[in-house]
Design goal:
It is a single chain. The protein has 894 residues and is an alpha/beta fold. 34% of the residues lie in helices and 16% in strands. The chain has 33 helices and 28 strands. Strands 4-8-9-6-5-7 form a six-stranded antiparallel sheet. A five-stranded parallel sheet has the order 14-13-12-15-26. A five-stranded parallel sheet has the order 17-24-18-19-20. Helix 27 links the parallel strand 19 and strand 20. The protein is elongated. It starts with a helix and ends in a 5-residue tail after the last helix. The model has no long low-confidence stretch (mean pLDDT 94).
């Protein structure tokens, strides 16, 4: 089909000076978007209006030669489409044709119905802001780009000489009319099924005349100045970056966009095209390593990945200084781009970071909360912990503390008592007056069901509630907490601890329903009919496993899981005489110690593993032996001996080895080496299974032969879009901290799953951490030599169900916190930094600030060629001065 001449002409008019140079054919975004919606008669009116000139109806009538009635009709249609911006000046309506972007294409995308009717609108917006900006990006000088970052105002505190237009409040006080509207970039990404999960609806703001236009044409909702300030705060706590169009002079910005690097097309210039000068503010962030504790909050919220976690403990591990490769003095093409910028984010410098944060399954900011605790800032420390773990008081008592095993302090003496410090901090949760209740970052009118109230379910519910969802947790038992309550005895985890953590989740608005077995009392389909849009399945591994040996079905042979559950529900089995516990893991230890407290006169544990192979933690083994529980290693059960149907003993055979050469479980026995052990009760703790019941009736959820759910290892997505699974029902039995981490990841996936067009991976932090190599660390003294602090034990009867492990005193806490070597610190690439201030407002340690690096004012669209000309010449001279092979190939780039 032949090109429509009037549409070609209109496209060139709208493009301005550069538009005149662009090739306009049927594949040009300017052409096909106008061609889809604009008639020739509309084009006649638009062309005579010219670019960026407010025109009255009288002017349009005079120039286009059409009747007043027809011209008004056409101008009104153009305003509805977004080709004209309609507003009132001195009591008279005026019509102005903006540039394509920022301007006309956003107006089109923000129309309530047009993007669905004309999908080419979103396509054109994405393409135009990529292919037309590509040649301009390398030659744009700081401050002269079409869009500009405005720092978070709180990040500018204490800086002298801040200009009015560098403050968000300037724009809010300058204008009298405000309109909230949807983010055009994230809306477009949604239509492309590339959404990143960031806020789309009611998050960007139009100002002054543009607000009037949006209100009059139904593109947005009018708000007050107070609401405008609240909107800016909402954007900031959601990690978004303030940007303003920079084509009308700094005093006439028509909008404040709240942007993310994973969807927004303006920020794409900085992150994909690697040309941050186009949009940066006059500021860059600067790190004070001596104050930094590598908590990672700034890294997480840095939209351009300018910040990474590094180390500061050892000079010999400092990264190599690299030359800055910039469009300012290099030829720039797509070979210099970061094409996978939305999925290849890196959190850690090449040399690694603090081992504690790395090894923690939830990647909690250990070094950060220890520093806060050392300063007596316990609520701040609790807040930092709960960024990753909503059950810190629970974990302070039962965590396997991989962080301690990895602690650099192991090179000197004993690792830091991280769990004990966390326990002290987290005990603030036990007092309603000192609890940390997070601020909700959004309010969504969507219902989500969490099935199971164990650590994964509780964690998912917490983070969904912080996101602002209406969450209901369904628990089939009469008590909440899952295996935390029913599988861990009170002498390790007292139930008031769990209750206190759950109370915080309730205060966030989460509803809990106990005694409701999903699949039996209500089905998933029925919950969908009740308005639940997403489901998190976290039923844990609450079943037992069988030995499949003779005598196993006798009355006094009890699964350890069922035994612990009965005790927790105040219906314990009355034990007496000799009790044999089969198993060598942490649960088996709990079973044995519980047996001591429920009537057993002697308890013997038998396990396949040698002592150094036992899966139970060393401290738990020690506690069992302190209670005179005898642990017998390298024995496997052969049969359970019965007399008249009653257990009298267990025959064991010697286990020669448990694992094969590939470390796979493959026990080998000496059948001739056996022993018979007297027993009145046998408690089996050889693993756990997933009990599905009727939960999945009518739901075709993919599972493995062992009963676990098939779920993505990163997103925990299942084969059903609105069902995410996590915890032990996915991984098999694991530690609570792993389930907690899975719960947070599941909340993010559910957030994305219940909205249309959202990707589960775009813009998502993969949380890929690696630690410094401790063997390469050279410590030169200067560290605290105080020995590791040890918590006291509370004097109690050894058969008590009370937890006799005391919490650190405040004095002990301070001494222990001062033993931290402070391994980690943040590193910054200032070339990537836009000076948005997100890092500054996240930091609790006075470790990162904005500083002025540039002093560039904005300009109008019309002034741009003149303002850029000297810079373009200067840039060309710098490029020519470089070695030829460097200019064209980048071979010398490091």
């Amino acid at each position: 089909m032949a090109l429509r001449k009037k549409i070609v002409k209109l496209a060139k008019v709208i493009g301005g000076l550069t538009g005149m140079l662009n090739k306009i054919d049927e594949n040009a975004p300017e052409y096909y978007v106008l061609d889809a919606m604009v008639t020739d008669d509309m084009a006649d009116v638009a062309i005579v209006a010219g670019l960026r000139k407010p025109r009255t109806l009288d002017y349009l009538v005079e120039k286009c030669g059409k009747s007043r009635e027809e011209t008004l009709k056409l101008a009104t249609q153009l305003a509805d489409l977004g080709v004209f911006k309609l507003c009132t000046k001195n009591g008279v309506d005026t019509y102005m044709m903006e540039v394509f972007a920022p301007g006309m294409l956003e107006y089109m995308v923000n129309h309530k119905t047009l993007p669905e009717k004309y999908p080419v609108i979103g396509k054109a917006f994405e393409e135009y802001t990529r292919i037309r900006i590509e040649p301009l990006a390398p030659i744009m000088k700081t401050g002269k780009g079409l869009v500009r970052v405005v720092p978070i105002e709180a990040a500018l505190e204490g800086i002298e000489g801040v200009k009015d237009y560098e403050r968000i409040s300037y724009y809010l006080e300058l204008n009298d009319r405000f309109c909230v509207t949807d983010c055009t970039c994230r809306k477009t990404r949604r239509h492309m099924n590339e959404g990143c999960g960031h806020l789309e609806h009611d998050i960007c703001m139009m100002l002054g005349e543009t607000a009037e236009y949006y209100i009059r044409t139904g593109r947005g909702r009018e708000i007050s100045r107070e609401e405008a300030y609240q909107l800016m705060h909402k954007a900031e706590i959601n990690g978004l970056v303030h940007e303003v169009p920079n084509i009308d002079g700094v005093e006439n910005a028509p909008a404040i966009c709240n942007c993310c690097s994973c969807s927004c097309f303006s920020m794409r210039v900085a992150t994909m095209m690697n040309a941050p000068d186009v949009i940066r503010s006059n500021y860059v962030a600067e790190v004070k390593p001596e104050n930094c504790v590598a908590c990672g909050q700034c890294v997480e919220y840095c939209n351009t990945n300018a910040l990474v976690l590094g180390q500061k403990i050892c000079d010999n591990l400092k990264p190599e200084e690299k030359e800055t490769i910039s469009p300012r003095d290099h030829m720039w093409n797509q070979d210099r781009w970061n094409h996978e910028y939305r999925t290849n984010r890196e959190n850690v410098a090449e040399t690694g970071t603090a081992p504690c944060k790395t090894e923690c399954p939830a990647h909690i900011a250990v070094q950060g909360y220890i520093k806060l605790a050392s300063e007596g800032r316990y609520l701040d420390a609790l807040e930092l912990i709960k960024k990753e773990n909503p059950l810190p008081a629970v974990c302070g008592r039962i965590c396997p503390h991989k962080c301690e095993n990895a602690c650099t302090r192991n090179k000197i003496d004993d690792p830091l008592a991280i769990d004990e410090i966390k326990k002290f901090i987290a005990d603030q949760e036990l007092n309603a007056e000192t609890r940390f209740i997070p601020e909700k970052i959004q309010h969504y009118d969507k219902k989500i069901a969490v099935i199971g109230s164990g650590p994964a379910g509780l964690s998912c519910a917490y983070y969904l509630a912080v996101h602002g969802y209406k969450v209901t947790v369904f628990e089939k038992e009469s008590k909440l907490g899952g295996m935390l309550t029913l599988g861990i005895p009170a002498f390790r985890l007292e139930k008031n601890i769990i209750d206190a953590e759950i109370d915080v989740i309730k205060q966030l608005g989460v509803e809990f329903k106990t005694g409701i077995e999903v699949g039996k009392d209500v089905t998933i389909k029925e919950l969908e009919n009740q308005g639940y849009e997403g489901f998190y399945i976290a039923i844990g591994a609450q079943g037992s496993r069988k030995l499949n040996i003779e005598g196993e079905d006798a009355k006094n042979v009890i699964s350890g899981v069922d035994f612990l559950k009965a005790v927790a529900l105040d219906n314990p089995t009355k034990l007496n005489g000799n009790v044999v516990v089969i198993g060598g893991g942490n649960v088996a230890i709990d079973v044995a110690r519980t047996a001591v407290r429920t009537g057993a006169s002697a308890v013997n544990m038998f396990c396949l593993e040698a002592r150094n192979e036992m899966p139970a933690l060393n401290e738990e083994i020690a506690e069992a032996e302190a209670e005179e529980i005898k642990i017998n290693n390298s024995w496997g059960p052969k049969r359970i001996i019965l007399e008249n149907g009653k257990v009298t003993g267990v025959e064991f055979k010697k286990c020669v080895s448990v694992f094969d050469e590939n470390h796979k479980f493959s026990p080998k026995y000496d059948e001739n080496d056996t022993i018979i052990v007297p027993a009145d009760f046998v408690l089996l703790s050889i693993g756990q299974s997933i009990v599905w019941g009727n939960l999945l009736d009518g739901v075709d959820l993919e599972r493995r032969p062992n009963g676990t759910v098939v779920a993505d290892g990163f997103t925990f997505a299942t084969n059903i879009k609105n069902i995410i699974a996590g915890g032990d029902c996915v991984t098999g039995p694991n530690f609570a901290i792993n389930a907690i981490a899975a719960g947070k990841a599941g909340a993010e996936s559910l957030h994305r799953s219940v909205w249309p067009g959202q990707s589960l991976i775009i813009g998502r932090d993969r949380r890929d951490y690696h630690a410094i190599n401790i063997d390469e660390v050279e410590l030169n003294g200067g560290f605290d030599t105080t020995p590791r602090q040890r918590p006291l034990h509370i004097a109690e009867n050894e058969k008590t169900f009370k937890d006799t492990r005391a919490t650190f005193t405040e004095e002990q806490l301070k001494k222990e916190a001062n033993r931290c070597l402070g391994c980690g610190a943040v590193q910054i690439n200032q070339e990537k930094c836009l000076g948005c201030g997100q890092c500054v407002v996240r930091c609790k340690f006075d470790a990162i600030h904005l500083k002025r690096k540039y002093n560039e004012d904005g300009c109008t669209f019309e002034q741009l060629p003149i303002k850029l000309a000297p810079y373009v010449v200067k840039r060309a001279m710098k490029i020519v001065a470089r070695p030829v092979k460097d200019v064209f190939t980048g071979k010398n780039d490091k």
